[in-house]
Amino acid sequence: MAPLAVALHERGAERVRRFRKGVCMNAPVFDAKGYVADIEQNVLGSLMYGGESQETLATLQDYHFVEKFHQEIYRAIRAAYERYNLCNPALVRKLLPEDQVTVFEKANDKKVGAYLARLTATATAGAAASPENARKIIEQWARLALANEAGRVYAAANDPMADVRIIAHEAARAIDDIMAEVRSGPSRKTRVTIANAAMRAVSSAAEAKQNGTGITGITWGLVDLNRMTGGIQRRDLTLIGARPSMGKTTIALSVAIAAAKAGACCGLVSLEMDAEKVAARAISDVLYDWGKSVPYSDIIRGDVTDEQLDLIVGAQERFNQLPLIIDDQSGQTVTDIRTRAERMLEDSRKTGNPMSVLFVDHLGLIRPSSRYSGNRVNEIAEITSGLKSLARELDIAVVLLSQLNRAVESREDKRPLLSDLRDSGAIEQDADMIAFLFREAYYLEREQGGSYEEQVAREDRLDACRNKLEFNVAKQRNGSLGTVNLFADMAYSAVRNGART
After folding, report:
1. Does the pLDDT value for residue 27 go beyond 50?
2. Average pLDDT for 381-395
3. One domain, residues 72 and 133
4. Domain limits at 453?
5. Which of 21, 81, 167, 401 is deepest in the core (most CB within 10 A)?
6. Could you tell me the pTM of the whole model?
7. What is the phi/psi pair of residue 110, to 5°?
8. Per-residue confidence (pLDDT) for residue 45, from 0 to 100
9. Last-in-domain residue among 131, 165, 182
10. Please, which residues bridge with residue 266 across strands?
11. Are 174 and 20 in contact (CB under 8 A)?
């Protein structure tokens, strides 16, 4: 192997070991090529000059600086703000470790004090640009980290004895960790005056009144649910939780079809089911409104008559007009979902109908990054936070499906509660709206035993609620809480407005 490849391989191997230990971000090793020192110098000088410090200090970590001594300066700057709530070159100089000062002065033949003064002087004209440049530092760090990872992959792939699966797996984990840093902060404009924000709110309300829908978001296709929530709201993370077989996928797909029929472009990330099976459910849903019901299980198995096949073809042609995109790649991370969502949004913009809502099925199948490997609470928090950021940054609604824990089954009343959310309170914190699904018929159909009178009473209850789906809004930041009764026919993947009494 060539000397350069050996060096890259050794550096990459060390970096992988750091990733596995969870400390790679603290001491990355970078090649000098492609490094622009001015980016780091501008931010450090701006902070010492008195630029916008709070946002920058909240965004940057010391390891984001490629130059080692810049890491020391940044640590000293943070310490100055934390201890004294002010920062200047003289104070930073006092807080720098003397051994690092000695190393710097010997290597560069200049005094640290003079270097700090120069950084401050050059930042005078652009002190207010520090938060923007902070993002540039992270992007530079990520770019060089990706270059190092590419070198590691190149070197490892040239080893005839290497396992390609291990190489790909390690590369994917490393890149996922790097991109998690890049995605950690918003890229859109976040500061607006209260007057502008109020103008937007009034405009949304006026539009809803004018179009006669009374909703400010994307339609659920369900009247009572629209009335309670105002629609699926852009830039919100909506979580729908339920136990298995309650209808999570059914309601997500049925709502997506209804929203697409109303003109909203929808994306569906199906981590559990391939696109063909999702499409079979969608066809069954559409045929249900035609009065020509065909169970989706029959469509999947091909157990249909010639007449039914003609109907299926007709329904399939209907989908040519629906702006509904399905991504069925399994094992995706939040970064993968973001990347694919950005592509969906870009492609849909070209058609003149940008994607409005993204459905993700489901939380338990999203692959976590290696950053919190083994700590499920932190893994879930990272996922929900990432999806919330995705909604805000792309200006879309994100509807996340989630499976609830088994504690529900041990209670007499099996209606879900917020405490039934799996693994992490971060779900409740990050979600703007949380709803639970409950079908009493599911449990009645499986209940056995009892006296003859009890069995008759159970059958009567089952007949009364066979197609009833309870949609319980347990949390809503900007609306009321309560339960909406819906009509659901699970065999045909159809969810409709519930009967009103």
Report:
1. no
2. 88
3. yes
4. 215-497
5. 401
6. 0.67
7. -150, 155
8. 87
9. 182
10. 324, 357
11. no
